[in-house]
Amino acid sequence: MKKKIRTNEGKMIYSRRMPTVEKIFGHMKNNLRLERFFVRGIRKVNIQWALLCTTYNLKRIFNIKIQEI
To answer: In whole angstroms, how far apart are CA 67 and each of 43, 50, 52, 61, 63?
Structure first.
């Protein structure tokens, strides 16, 4: 991986990857206080993750609609 990142193409791909996905996880971890899941079992974790993603998306939609008004 280090060898791939050192190339110009690897740097370009890695730089495009950083601001899109990791930003959302960082927001969920810091602002929504998701440092660990509070349930046990993959099914329950999937449900909790879906609720957190839904919350994030609803907040975004709400903020975008408020800005339009």
So the answer is: 36, 26, 23, 10, 6
- Pull the structure tokens for residue 67: 């800005």
Q: In terms of Cα–Cα distance, which of 63, 51, 66, 60 is closest to 24?
A: 60
Contacts of 29 (CB under 8 A, 6+ apart): 35
pTM of the model: 0.57
Determine the average pLDDT of the residues in 33-61. Answer: 89
Which residues are CB-contacts of 37 (< 8 A; sequence separation ≥ 6)?
A: 44, 45, 48, 49
For residue 31, what is the DSSP state? T
CA-based Rg of the chain, rounded to a whole angstrom?
17
